[in-house]
Amino acid sequence: MLNTHRVCRFAITAFCLAALAVGIVWNGLFAIADLSARRNQTDSTRLAMRLMPANAAYPAQLAEELYASDPPAAKSLLQKAVKLNRYDASSWIQLGLLSEAENDLPQAEESLLQAASADSTFLPSWSLTNFYFRRQNAARFWYWAHRAAQMVPDDATPLFRLAWYVNPNAQEIEKGLQMKRPVVEGQFVNFLLTQDDPEAVTAAALHLLQTTNKESTGTLLGACDWLLEHKRPDLALGLWNGLATRTSYRSPGADSPVTNSDFGKSPLSHGFDWHLPTVEGVSSFLNANPNTLGFEFSGEEPDSFLLLSQTVPVHAQKPYAMTVDYGTSGIPPGSGIEWRVTDEQTGSVLARTSSLSSEKAEKGGRAATCFTTPEGAAFVNLSLIYQRQPGTVRVEGKLALKAVRLTAAAAGDCAAEKISNSRADSPAL
To answer: Phi, psi (5° rounding) for residue 369?
Structure first.
């Protein structure tokens, strides 16, 4: 009995030692194989395959190394890799692309579908989207494009570009992709900006606006600016009004269509708010109680430039009065600083004020001018510009704007201040 126990203990000990030895050998082989594979050289990778023939990663790696130089060998290696590991989606994709290159389309499709079955992330769906795009199979294209859109990792622009080739219709693309993440919808808006389609940009931006995602505000402001730059303020206005509601930005009052007319907020330089360009030699500042937007001229600014501008909605063939409350310090009469009203579509000057200077006014000055909007006009641009006058030095001093208003005027109210036809036809600065 005692001998039997000893034999059993000996057998168990021997088995454990044998298992330990096998483990040591296996770990040693694995370490050598891994070190060889890390060299990324075909001979080293082949050695790794011989040492660890059941490891699917090594034939997959060797296939990648031979992909361009020896496609048939790469295909054979990929077949071996997926046989060893049927969940290797990357190898299935590469196998599908090689089969497609050989015009073996059934095998290519089957391999790509196997990749999608093994891995439900973006890359297999994106690979199938491209495959069906190349095969001009619209139904399957939209199926896989929709799946890819739900999990696109970073930049969805390549997906949008393919969809646009299939059907250059923004609404149909939104319907087909069914984008659910605001970040992807924002990328779609930015993509549409490159397609020069204002109606499509507007539709996509309004759809994004409905998501109430605050992080999309910058994208929406960019779309609004793009529409203004492309002479479509009619489309930009609805988007701007929606943004104003979202950001608690006060809309223009009924008495004046000018946004932020009393400079209660710092100009956004976007949309229908004041745009405040950067000008060398001129600094700007915003004061409160009372609200003023100020400019300080160093005397080293350019001879002519735009200080401030805003696009304002108006009614066609209606008389308007523009009034500006302001103050100056150190700026003499004939300064060359003036307001101009231009037709948004044609750029023709409708009205202009005299040069701003209030040195003799105790409580500041007021500039005023009147104009009648042309037939068909829906928007005008209000611009504060500087043009150095002949025989004068560059202006040096301060200007503080207190309020800018545009109000309906009775016919003939400011007849004396209307500009002549010759000046009305002059181009805007």
So the answer is: -155, 160
Quick: pLDDT tens for 372-418.
999 999 999 999 999 998 888 899 999 999 999 999 887 555 544 44
Q: 267 near 221, Cβ under 8 Å?
A: no
Q: Counting beta carbons within 10 angstroms of the beta carbon of residue 183, is it exposed (0 to 12), middle (13 to 18) or buried (19 or more)?
A: middle
Contact 184, 145 (CB under 8 A): no
Mean pLDDT over each residue of the chain, to the nearest integer: 82
- Cα distance from N-terminal residue to C-terminal residue, the chain: 113
DSSP bridge pairs for 386: 305, 337
List pLDDT tens digits, range 215-259: 889 999 999 999 999 999 999 999 999 888 776 666 565 567 999
Rounded CA-CA distance 104/63 in Å is 19
Answer whether 306's CB lies under 8 Å from 383's CB: yes
Residues with Cβ within 8 Å of residue 375, at least 6 apart in sequence: 316, 317
Count CB atoms within 10 A of the CB of residue 294: 18
Tokens of 2: 């005692």
Whether the CB-CB separation of 186 and 219 falls below 8 Å is answered with: yes
The radius of gyration of the chain's CA atoms, rounded to the nearest angstrom, is: 35
Q: What is the pTM of this model?
A: 0.78
Any bridge partners for residue 383, and if so which? Answer: 309, 340
DSSP 81-125: HHHH-TT-HHHHHHHHHHHHHTT-HHHHHHHHHHHHHH--SHHHH
Check: CB of residue 151 under 8 Å from CB of residue 145. Answer: no
